[in-house]
Amino acid sequence: METLIFKDWKSLASVAFCAVIAYLTLFIFIRISGKRTLAKLNAFDFVVTVILGSTLSSMILAKVTLSEGLVALIIIILLQYALAWTAKRSHKAEAIINSVPTLLFYNGAFIEDALDKEVITKEEIYAEIRKYRLHRMDDVQAVVMELNGTFTVVKKAPGGSHTSLEDIDTDV
After folding, report:
1. How far apart are CA 157 and CA 78, in angstroms?
2. What is 27-52 written as a DSSP string?
3. H helix or E strand, kind and range, residue 159
4. pLDDT score for 161
5. Apex CA 111: angle with CA 145 and CA 122, to 5°?
6. pLDDT recorded at residue 103
7. pLDDT of amino acid 115
8. pLDDT score for 127
9. Which of 7, 14, 35, 135 shows its CA 20 to 30 Å from the CA of 128?
């Protein structure tokens, strides 16, 4: 029971040293890899975050050496960058990596197939619309589930042919 609370000063110093090195390394890698690493998470970014956390934990608790952990962090961040770069240049790769936004409500009607596919209730859509401080459903052009699982409510606007819904199939 005694070692559960305190083992020895050497192991405490080792954990402290590894934590500082792991923190600084991750900070530098995130600064190098860009803002995407910190953006709201899509499925791919979530996986990367979990793997980074697991790797950092292993480094801090000395389950792997610092050099092994650093190599793992470098590979993870390089893979994230490579896949993001590929997705930016290929529509097919982007569809595989990022999926596509889903139209859940359009022109006054719920899209039942999309609600079923995404396992979203009408009540959740109403709640999202209220977050945008809209009272009348007639004021809502669309509700979209974005790539990262968040909702966007698009208000109806007079005129204009260029809209934020151009990348979404609105033929429902």
Report:
1. 42
2. HHHHHHH-GGGGSPP-HHHHHHHHHH
3. none
4. 65
5. 70
6. 95
7. 94
8. 94
9. 35
Q: Which two tokens stand for residue 136?
A: 């009348």
Tokens of 60: 């801090």
Low-confidence ranges of the chain (pLDDT < 50): none
The tokens describing 147, both together, are 């790539």
Distance of CA 167 to CAs 53, 91, 111, Å? Answer: 33, 12, 17
How many C-beta neighbours within 10 Å does residue 39 have? 10
Give the tokens for residue 65. Answer: 């050496």
pLDDT reported for residue 92: 86
Rounded CA separation 48/70 (Å): 15
**pLDDT digits over 60-99, tens only?**
888 888 888 888 888 988 888 888 889 889 988 887 777 7
The three-state secondary structure class of 143 is strand
Residue with tokens 């909702």: 151
